[in-house]
Amino acid sequence: MSFSKAPPAPKAAPAEKAATSDKAVLPDKEVTLKADSLYVDTPTESYHAQGHVQIMQGGASLLADSAVYRRLTSDALAEGNVLLERGGDTMKGDQLFLNLLTQKGELLNGELFIKKSNFRLRAPRLLKTGEDDYQVERGVFTTCDGEHPSWRFEAKKVDVTLDEYATARNAVFYVDNVPIFYTPYLVFPANTERQSGLMIPKLGFSSKKGFYVDQPYYWAIDPSQEATLDLDIESSRGVGTGVDYRYLRPNDSQGRLRAFGIYDTNESKFRGELQQKHLELLTPELTLASTVHLVSDRKYYLDYGEFSGEYNRQLLESSVSFDRRWERYGLFGALRYDQDLEAPNNRATLQRLPTFGFIAAGEKLGPVFFSMDSSLTNFEHAVGPTGQRLVLHPRVSYYAKPAGILDFSLFGAFQQRMYNAHGDTAETGWRQIGQADGGGALSLPLERIYDNGTLRHLLVPALQYNYVQRRSDEDLPFYDYGDRVLGQSIAYWSVANTFTRKYVREGMPDEYRDLLYLKLSQGYQFTGQRRDLLTLVDEGNRLTDLMLESVVTPLKDLSLLVDGRYNTNDNVVSTANLGLQVKGEGRNQASITYRYSREELDYLGAGVTFPLTSQLTADLLGRYSFDKGGFLESRYALEYRQQCWSVILAYSDRVSSHQVSGEKQFTINFSLAGLGSLGPIQTF
To answer: Which of 141-155, 358-372, 446-460, 645-659 has the lowest average pLDDT?
Structure first.
């Protein structure tokens, strides 16, 4: 096709008028021109368009009140309400000169807008120096909407390359109209994807660290690798560095490496932490994995731990393992190293170097199923017995459904353990022991449907019996509690209730949610011994504690978990665990946790996040110990959020105890929307 235009005119008539609402198409440049009226200058092949002008090329569209397009040079001059759009990114202004072939041009009184990051760059004169390159003098940029943004940078010169960097020289940062700081050179991401760059620093004060500044740098290595590097300056402890490296590999393999190190001027020594995780899926059946977690000293988390569960850790585990699976069989192996943070040193800590295991799961042999667990472990430590333990535990099971309504199962098994012990122990040489075990279970599932098929009640009363042969094993090596298997004969009764609601959703699959799960159970021991790591065990009482397990979810965003044990002989509560969580819109939520263990623990934890105003949110967290009579930890935070920025002020107080030293800390986190949480932004 050629341009649609009037017949050639005499040379004395340099231009002619085409029809109203005309359209012109240029095949070699793939340019389409639409307008209310179109004038063609035939000798120069210039096209003058007026009214609702639209020039389209590839995926780009240029709108204006009027335009002149010169076919020979591919130059376009657009004026009045100019809007250039491509992939959601736009340029708009009063006048635009653009070469459609080189994509170079100039925009007057214009703005560049990058949709994904909401990045806006405004300037009296904006140069387009390439397809994705821009340059301005005396520019203003922000990620806020409106004519009066909450924050902005004003710079003498700005260079932007989409999907890469934008750089600014002699830049001043403003909040509203108040200048905050000046930097001679600024680099920030002006991309639609992740990009490398320094992030806004984290500021704070701690009673242990003093005043500190944590300056992170984000490095987008390639599409499958990224890293965050940290420079941590602490007035009371020195300067530390950290790295957090993450990567993806083919077949969903992935890994992460985290490390931090600091020369602690308060302790006059180097201190640090190393964490590594890797999962390698060689085939769908073969997996390799590694987990490494080490610290330089046993008091490291007391000084550098940030949260409960971290600063009071007792053990760190490191391992390298493989797992090979078949349809009904599995083979695994692991090297495991433990670091005991409570012991004075690691010489007495038991290490499993290595462990191998083989599992056969449910192979049917006639009316019964055969399964087996087996393991071979080499135990090592500098103090105490070392050696090997082989465990073979075959099992035969039978399943039936009497009368079509009962669930019935029986099993019989035999555990054979063999030892080769040496070192610092009296039980050296080869030892072995075998113990038979077995049991059965009988249950009666009862179901009823209510509310026109939308509510189901499942009631399952059950009986269970377990037997373990009692054998004398005091002359065997003791590596762990697997070497002291208690003989016993014990029966349990239980009643489980489950209420499930079906929610019919129009145009979508039905949703099912358990509104209530409640189970009561108790055991009676005929002979033998009991070992319970959670509660105190009264060997003189054959009845076990009455046990309660419950999960209540009456609403989608409301859940209650209850777990408790009641000693019917002494009429006392042995343990009580309570958890309540309520979720609201956005980040709004509340939770409460209560933990009680007789003569051991009495603890309450609670947290709530709620709005004070439309922009201000409060976040409160506390942990209170009733047995110690005071708070273990408290945290108070306020977040002020605007459309394009937010600031979080937080204060935490961790109380000292016999194991954990206390710490008070105040932090300030500031983020600019579109530049990432705490960045990413780079300043020099």
So the answer is: 645-659
* Burial class of residue 283, CB neighbours in 10 A (0-12, 13-18, 19+): exposed
Q: Of 232-236, 408-412, 612-616, which has the strongest mean pLDDT?
A: 408-412
What confidence tens digit (pLDDT) does each residue in 557-576 have?
999 999 999 998 889 999 99
Amino acid 384: pLDDT = 76
By three-state DSSP, how is residue 481 classified?
Answer: helix
Residue 577 has which token pair? 């665990």
Residue with tokens 């710490």: 663
Q: Cis peptide leading into 344, omega within 30 of 0?
A: no
- How many CB atoms are located within 10 Å of the residue 389 CB? 23
What whole-number distance in Å separates Cα of residue 349 and Cα of residue 110?
69
The confidence score (pLDDT) of residue 420 equals: 92
Q: Which residues pair with 399 in a beta bridge?
A: 409
Q: Please give the pLDDT value at position 189.
A: 64
Q: What is the DSSP string of 304-354?
A: H--STTTTT--EEEEEEEEEEE-SSEEEEEEEEEEEESSSSSSTT--EEEE
Quote the pLDDT of residue 194.
60
Q: What are phi and psi for residue 301, nearest 5 degrees?
A: -70, -25
- Of the candidates 397, 325, 392, the one whose C-alpha atom is nearest the C-alpha of residue 364 is 397
Q: Give the closest residue to 562 by CA, choosing from 545, 579, 574.
A: 579
Quick: pLDDT tens for 283-314: 999 999 999 999 999 889 888 887 766 777 88
The total number of residues shown for the chain amounts to: 684
**pTM score:** 0.72
Amino acid at 448: R
Report which secondary-structure segment, H or E, holds 304: helix 300-304
Please, are residues 224 and 249 in contact by the beta-carbon 8 Å criterion?
A: yes
Angle (CA) 515-518-520 rounded to 5° is 175
- The token duo for 379 is 């135990």
- 585: CB partners within 8 A, 6+ apart: none
Q: How far apart are CA 47 and CA 71, in angstroms?
A: 8
DSSP 615: S
Q: CB–CB of 645/668 below 8 Å?
A: no
Cα separation, 224 vs 221, in Å, equals: 8
| Position 44, amino acid | T
Q: Is the pLDDT of residue 607 over 60?
A: yes
Tokens (6 digits) for 346: 């690691």
Distances (CA, A) of 480 to 188, 248, 317, 390, 485: 55, 37, 16, 13, 10
- Which residues on adjacent β-strands are paired with residue 275? 258, 293
* d(C-alpha 420, C-alpha 490), whole Å: 32
DSSP state of 306: -
3-state secondary structure of 303: helix
pLDDT per residue over 44-66, tens digit each? Answer: 888 899 999 998 887 889 999 99
The residue type found at 549 is E
Q: pLDDT tens across 105-123, in order?
A: 999 999 998 887 788 899 9
What's the rounded Cα separation, in Å, for the pair 330 and 406?
32
The token pair that represents 409 in the structure block? 């199962």
CB 71 within 8 A of CB 45: yes
Nearest to 640 by CA among 114, 113, 175, 210: 175
Are 565 and 547 spatial neighbours (Cβ–Cβ below 8 Å)? yes
What's the Cα-to-Cα distance from 40 to each of 46, 53, 518, rounded to whole Å? 6, 14, 83
Angle at 398 between CA 396 and CA 404, to 5 degrees: 170
